[in-house]
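Thread: quick sanity check before group meeting

JM: Hey all, I'm pulling together slides for Thursday and realized we never actually wrote out the predicted structure for the chain we discussed last week. Dropping the sequence here so it's in one place. If anyone has concerns about the input, flag it before I start.
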Amino acid sequence: MLKKIAFIRSIDIKQAEPTISQLKNDFIKNNKIDFKIYYSGNKLDDPSLSENIETFDKNIKIEELAYKIFKWKPDLVVSISLPDNNAVRDAVLKEYLYKKYNIKMVMHPIKSTLLLGNKWDTNFWLRSMNFNTSNAIHISSEMINNLHNNYEDYKYYFDAISTSISNMKKPLFVKPLRNSMSIGVKVFNDDKDIIDYIYKNKDQDYIIEEKINGQLYGMEALIKNKNIFFQPLVKKCSLEGGALMPFGHLRYGNIVIDNDIYNKITKQITEITKKLKLQGSVEFEFIVEKKEFKFVEINPRISGMTNLSSSISNINTFSWLINSNITKKNINKKINDFIIAEIPLDSVSENFYKNYKKLKKVISIQNVTYHNGEKSWKALFKGKSLEKIYLYINNLQKKGDIKIPLNIKKEFEKELFF
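JM (edit): ok, ran it. Output follows.
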């Protein structure tokens, strides 16, 4: 019997390529599954992406969205939304769909989604559960506004912030509590600059964190009850060594690290997913230094590296979420023998974009709009080594096919030569 799967998606659907194309061409066809994507992102300008998509207004009420889905009568609903605010919406939708229409949805519980969508709550929870993470303090916008309005009565809060910051190792990251994808993150070395910044930008809460030395990695975990699948490790590069606007930097994998460290990481991730009763896709970011690691963030949703992870493992994240809930088939991990790198580009020639699918070393090229309004080209390239990918894209640039951002060239060089 034909199974019907509904996906919920917000933010530019083109970001989900090539994962959606692979899902359509392989999994859906072979397993006789029909699907529809309920979508509230940007206007669709690609006819091939319009198929199987039903749009909805981003301000729609939960009960209206649930009824729209119910009318199609899906066997399962799967959240593939980002960033965190849309993940919260999907967590609420999950509970409403089940209570009202007895329709199951793959998404995390509301309580856990809210916790992980708040950087301070996440940091505090991790430390309270004895998981290693950064030393941090919380800055309350309410108290900062009180300082503006009545300094004398609240000056000791100012003193508490100043004293806490002075005792923290520099540099320090100042992060909005609920923003995603590193938007709004600032790096400071001077105490006065931090105080001035949060005092002037007083309309939101912040978390101030010490920088963690080491290499930044990401890993997606896919969960169905006790069944957990780890997508391959991805290294997230930056020249600064920690601060990262993810879609503006080099990311690549499959990365192999010390086996003992890897086992400790996956063991702790498993413990966290159980404690928070997570269901679906979640991304863990952590920094590894020698034999130690610390968690940086936990994103309760699919992530900006879902395409890259799926390409490295040859296991489509969306397919796994369907398989584990509908067909109950086990998927064997078949790690790609190649290194695969996700690379932002300044430009792509019209002719190259038209013909790139004929090239074995180019997996995908997309012109996307991110949730902060920024537009960019990004591409997935594969090669036998990171060096061979670097040589290949430099050759493409010499021919005028692409233009590589300067920071990407420097990040490649840092990975290869330093």
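AS: nice. The mean pLDDT is 89. DSSP finds 15 helices and 20 strands in the chain.
JM: adding both to the slides.
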